Amino acid sequence: MTERFSRETLLLMAILATVVLILVLVALLLSSWQWSWLGIITTLLIFTYPLGWCGWRAWRYLTEPWMRLTAYTQSLNEGEQRVVLSQASRPSLTEGLVVEIDRLARHRLQAVQQQQSFSLLLAQVFDNWPQPVCAFGESTILVYANRTARELRGISLLLGARAGDMGFVFSDNQLHHPSLQKGWQNQSIRYRLAEEDYWLFIANDISLPLHQSEMIIQNNLVRVLSHELRNSLTPMASMTDTLLEMQSWPPEQVRQVLDRVRQRARGLLNFVQRFASVSQVPQPRQEWFDLSSLVEQSRSLLPGGTELSFFGEHRCHGDPILLGQVLMNLVKNAVEAQLKPESEIQVRFFHADGMQFLMVEDQGEGFANLDNALTPLYTTKAEGAGIGLALVNMIVARHGGRIRITNRPEGGASVELSWPLTIRSP
């Protein structure tokens, strides 16, 4: 603004200087003609009016079009779209500038209308959603927030404000908010509209499902622990009561009671160790090894008449100790599920599309409940603890893979493990 006013002042001073110079020249000319001072002053007064009028017209000619152009640009910048700059108000030397201003104004109007249409579409879709939904435009400026998002406690949402100013942070190319961490699941989707990037942020309240899941786990934990403790402590209490009721303690009978108490105690300790192993799975140390050697070790679990067949690739990439435990658990489950003394357990392993696949199939009774088979502490076996498959699932997850369980149409169960082949074979 200061620079603009200084240039206008210089222009005005230049016009005034020109008028004064002309008057001085006229005065000098009349003086050279030996006019009287009265005549010179009278003539200068007569010349002052037309010269002032010409200077004023020159000032209007040079500044008024620019003032109109400035007012026109300011109106467009403030969002007024009905203002039109007349042809007469356009300086011929700046016609290109006027064209560019009109083009930018139309582009901005189109962007504003498109953003308004987009906000209206979001309002129609998400206003009644029970989940908080926010949309951020260019430079992460908030352009929309539904009713549920505006009612969130601890978050002040202001349209036109930046995401960072409202507490949102970027992490792993995703939007998060510190107030929506515990009990919330945040999801943000990036998309492009009219050559601009937008972010759609959705938060799901998962506190109730988490609480229900925790209650199910706690109930299963109490059920399994009470079952194991009852099975172990009840016989121990009964044998000690019988021993205490006796008048004399025959050494042989005392030894027999103590031996049974020891067996029960060891069984209970073994259960506790297996239970703790589910939450103590270490990070895998992956390397190349021969999977067939682990299959041979699993043959020690087979009863008489049961065969274990191995098909496919021998070289496997993973943690041999953890995967050995996986194979032991799967073979043990297959042995316990067999319906007849003579049966076959098949182990298949192969590579495909950068993934490794390990399949164990048996000829047993199959899974009684596929939906809960991987749930920790859930079991349909009379003497099971529901830990084997949960441990297998956790070990495979540590390798970045997943587990898939099915019942075979011809009878028996199938467990398929898949995890990525992270490095190339040497």
Automatic annotation (TrEMBL):
The keyword 4Fe-4S does not apply. Residues 224-423 form the Histidine kinase domain. It catalyses: ATP + protein L-histidine = ADP + protein N-phospho-L-histidine. SMART domains: HATPase_c, HisKA. It comes from the Bacteria. Pfam families: HATPase_c (PF02518), HisKA (PF00512). GO terms for molecular function: ATP binding; phosphorelay sensor kinase activity. Keywords: ATP-binding, Kinase, Membrane, Nucleotide-binding, Phosphoprotein, Transferase, Transmembrane, Transmembrane helix, Two-component regulatory system. Its EC number is 2.7.13.3. The chain crosses the membrane at residues 9-30, 36-59. The keyword Oxidoreductase does not apply. PANTHER family: C4-DICARBOXYLATE TRANSPORT SENSOR PROTEIN DCTB, SENSOR HISTIDINE KINASE. This is histidine kinase.
